[in-house]
TrEMBL record:
UniProt binding sites for pyridoxal 5'-phosphate: G243, E280, P281, G282, R283, Y376
Self-association and partners: Homodimer.
Pfam families listed in its UniProt record: Orn_Arg_deC_N, Orn_DAP_Arg_deC
Organism name: Piscinibacterium candidicorallinum
Any one GO molecular function term: diaminopimelate decarboxylase activity
Residues modified to N6-(pyridoxal phosphate)lysine: K61
UniProt cross-references to HAMAP family, sorted A to Z: LysA (MF_02120)
UniProt keyword Amino-acid biosynthesis, yes or no: yes
Protein name (database record): Diaminopimelate decarboxylase
Length: 423
């Protein structure tokens, strides 16, 4: 799953930097990212869209580290945000506000205000998800004397055939506006002096391997676009959302070029080629650019199971506990005889596992790398069990840079100590 990992004299190395050296220098658990993989992944989208008006808005919920955002902003990325916090991160990383689309079903007044004011002229577009939100945006824009750029996130009612927790485009999902009501909402927006219709968007789910649901969504959305155009409501951009899957185990997702070729061919054939084509990929940009490095603390034999207890846990990487998700776990430098282990963390929950029934040649003190951890890893981390969040490092051209230091106990306690002292 990670193309930049190779065996070296000191065990596994990422882009030429030994993981053992990283562990020695920064400790564990540590997220390790490859700048080269990030660049390649982003470039593969840009290349697939070259020669047409386009914008790739990185869905930063997948990984919102400022250094990663800065790297992508430097390549011309736009950003898909879902909160004022994410907006602040894009601005802090030097991203262009005009390249931001704002998704999410519960945008608050203060968030809408911040987005309209961002960088003076505001974000690129609100992906509106309800009639209430439309009215709210209109009100805030009127109060600020602005015209808010809007697109509707339309729910195309397509089954992406992925995990139910990450399917988002079915008609009984909370996301988007129902297909049947979209026309009316567009009419309302088009008639408002404080709103400007700029686009249309959908997002059907995540970790999608089969490209067929994307094509189905495209066709339905274009039907709607054409209906709008017959009424004189013209849109400038078409946003197909994110969702392209990655290889965690043996999945064989199409590359961005393979996934987009038939989509763009249809888009053009239906006469929309002059519109700006947009995407909101997250996982496929960062997922396989990162791994989580941990140290084996204890090997423990239970009645019929052998546990490999590492210093990373569900608070660091929640996907196995939350979705039963699989990630490869590999020894940095295998030693001794291999045995089947459940790789688990020290958190007080039986759901705190990272991998089950894994054949590993490991001893206490050894390093393990959990692969494909770049997306929805650190961004979903918590302090459960008062565990500090992991460090993050970026490997770039043979150099390792700390891009977020390990959270200390002082950092964790600061606000509560202040509250105690204020009494
Ligand atoms: N656009 C919107 C509106 C989204 O809601 C999402 C992800 C994306 C784009 C990016 O999708 P991607 O390209 O990453 O598939 N925590 C889950 C994934 C949740 C995805 C939520 N929405 C996981 O770890 O699998």
């Amino acid at each position: 799953p990670n193309p930049h990992l190779a065996d070296g004299p000191a065990g596994l190395a990422l882009d030429g930097v030994a993981l053992a050296d990283i562990a020695r220098q920064f400790g564990t658990p540590t997220y390790v990212y490859s700048a080269r993989a990030l660049r390649e992944n982003f470039a593969s989208y840009q290349q697939a869209l070259a020669g047409r008006k386009h914008r790739v808005c990185y869905a930063m919920k997948a990984n919102s580290n400022l250094s990663i955002l800065k790297l992508l902003a430097g390549m011309g990325a736009g950003f898909d945000i879902v909160s004022a916090g994410e907006l602040a991160r894009v601005l802090a990383a030097g991203g262009d506000p005009a390249g931001i689309v704002f998704s999410g079903v519960g945008k608050q007044v203060a968030e809408i205000e911040a987005a309209l004011n961002a960088g003076g002229s505001g974000i690129g577009c609100f992906n509106v998800e309800s009639a209430t939100e439309l009215a709210r945006i209109e009100q805030v824009a009127a109060r600020l004397g602005k015209r808010a750029p809007v697109s509707f996130r339309v729910n195309p009612d397509v089954d992406p055939k992925t995990h139910p927790y990450i399917s988002t485009g079915l008609k009984d999902n909370k996301f988007g506006v129902a297909f049947g009501t979209a026309i009316d909402l567009y009419r309302r927006a088009a008639a408002s002096a404080h709103l400007k219709v700029v686009g249309i968007d959908c997002h059907i789910g995540s970790q999608i391997i089969d490209p067929a649901p994307f094509m189905e969504a495209l066709d339905k959305m274009l039907d709607l676009v054409e209906q709008l155009e017959r009424e004189g409501i013209v849109i400038e951009h078409f946003d197909l959302g994110g969702g392209l899957g990655i290889t965690y185990r043996d999945e064989a997702p199409p590359t961005p070029a393979q996934y987009l070729a038939p989509i763009l061919a249809r888009f053009d054939a239906r006469g929309h080629g002059s519109k700006t084509f947009m995407l909101e990929p997250g996982r496929s940009i960062v997922g396989n650019a990162g791994l989580l490095l941990s140290t084996v603390q204890v090997i423990k034999q239970a009645a019929s199971k052998r546990f490999c207890i590492v210093d990373a846990a569900m608070n660091d990487y929640m996907r196995p506990a939350m979705y039963g998700a699989y990630s490869e776990i590999v020894e940095v430098a295998p030693q001794g005889d291999a045995a089947v282990h459940d790789v688990v963390g020290p958190v007080c929950e039986s759901g705190d596992w990272l991998g089950r029934d894994r054949l590993l040649a490991v001893a206490e003190g050894d390093l393990l790398a959990l692969l494909s951890a770049g997306a929805y890893g650190m961004s979903m981390a918590s302090n459960y069990n008062t565990r500090g969040r992991a460090a993050e490092v970026l490997v770039d051209a043979g150099q390792v840079r700390l891009i977020r230091r390990r959270e200390t106990i002082d950092m964790q306690l600061a606000d509560e100590l202040a509250a105690l002292q204020a009494r």
